[in-house]
Amino acid sequence: MAIAALDTTSTLPEAKKGEAKDQRVVATSHDLYALHTSSPGSPLFQPYGTHIFQKLQAFLRAQYHNHGFQEVLTPIIYKKALWETSGHWDNYKDAMFAVTGRGAQGGHDPGREIGEDEEYGLKPMNCPGHCLLFKSQKRSYKDLPIRYADFSPLHRNERSGSLSGLTRLRRFHQDDGHIFCRPSQIKQEISRTLDFVQMVYQTFRMGDYKLRLGTRPEHFIGTVHDWDQAEDRLKMALQGSGHQFYINHGDGAFYGPKIDIILTDADGKDHQTATIQLDFQLPKRFELEYDAGETGKGQLESDSSDTCSQTETPVLIHRAILGSLERFLALLIESNSGRWPFWINPRQLIILTVGNNAEVRQRAEEMARQLASPDARAGAQTLRASNFIVDCDNSNESIAKKIIIARKKGYSFYAVVGERNLGQSPEKQTLDVSIGSHPNQHDLRQVLENFLQLGGPASSSPEGTTSTSLTLQQCQQLMKELELEYM
Asked: 150, 176, 260, 393: which one is catalytic?
């Protein structure tokens, strides 16, 4: 079976020139998400978009153990009193959604449960909830640093005119993390976080990014001394990192200075993704403390004074590696133009049948099921079982048209199955596999060639499409190899 070689320069031939990298055009073409006026700025993710979104989360979760983070779950709604304690109600209220309790009319009716009449706010940030978690137990300096991670949805009441695709939303998810540490640990924790950012952005091949230091804004909480001290700590960490950075005066959060990671989209517009913020204020407002022992473990490296205090207040580092997952996804969509790396692609493999042979169609569907779950067994599946997205096109269209459709949809590769592929036993049955829609075809072809050193040879067309004949078991193993390609 000769496999047609097609042009691989675009998977979006229907888009106008200049639109191929617009995340809204790509998202529509690839059925990633929908927006509706019923909930402005709150995307409804289609199954394909959900797959990519969950892959982003899974990737980060896989890194958390090595970086010392523990994932937590926290509420999305808190009483107004909590937001007053954190300072959000006074400094961030315009960007929050206020919610009233059931039957709230002001005052308290003895017939109602206490709290029903109170005002609440949907959380725009996770930090107050993580402060409550820290405070829920007695802490020692030996426990620090404590690192929490949280994927809870956040809500911010953005102006309707500023909403745009996935880059500016009212409901979004952040790979939020908070590090409670001693002052002497600040430099190391900031450095570790910058290394985490670099590793992740290299993995996603996002190109160069800029580092921006935001300093004390006009409206802030805390003392100028605390702010000067916090800004100095961030500057020292940036200077020690070897990365170039620039200062954006007055751009800090109301509770502390921050380092923002800036990526540029296809239109040349800058987007803030990752962030690292140093906060001396919230731990004080929530009266957080840890047992410092008798040696004053909390002193800064530059401090020469001793302390007799048995308890001290921790420092809080806010950090997000991808930032808004939706915004990062928008930038990924544009950088890949819908041609995803295999491990994250919601359309990984499609089996295309040749002719109208009923046995071929039945066997192709069986192959698709086996390839989708190569580790499947009867009953409950193991947590580590491999699962892939494998579709089957059994339509009456010609094989040439099926290939065109598969490539337009952005499948990483496709496999053709006809009568000649059906052996006398399942072990002898083969698929004619062709690779041509992958964004990093050189790397993918290298994986295939390395894999095939133990099998049959691969052939390459002048247009760059690599094709070969594989058994079902070989194809399963190839997909497992490709799943680790990003590493």
From this structure: 176
- Predicted TM-score of the model (pTM): 0.84
Residue 175 annotated among the catalytic residues of the structure? no
User: What integer pLDDT is reported at residue 462 of this predicted model?
Assistant: 39
Distance from C-alpha of 315 to C-alpha of 481, rounded to nearest angstrom:
43
Ramachandran angles phi, psi of 475, nearest 5°:
-65, -40
Residues of the chain with pLDDT under 50: 1-18, 106-107, 297-298, 300-308, 454, 456-464
Catalytic residue, chosen from 127, 131, 392, 475, is: 127
| 441 in active site | no
Q: Where are the alpha helices (DSSP H) in 205-304?
A: 224-241, 281-285
What does the pLDDT read at residue 136? Answer: 97
pLDDT value, residue 126: 96
Residue 258 falls in the annotated catalytic set: yes
What is the Cα–Cα distance from 317 to 297, expressed in whole angstroms? 18
* Distance between CA atoms of residues 53 and 91, nearest Å: 31
Dihedral angle, C-alpha 235, 239, 240, 244, nearest 10 °: 130
Amino acid (1-letter code) at residue 25: V
- Going by C-beta distance under 8 Å and a sequence separation of 6 or more, which residues neighbour residue 135? 286, 287, 288
pLDDT at 429: 81
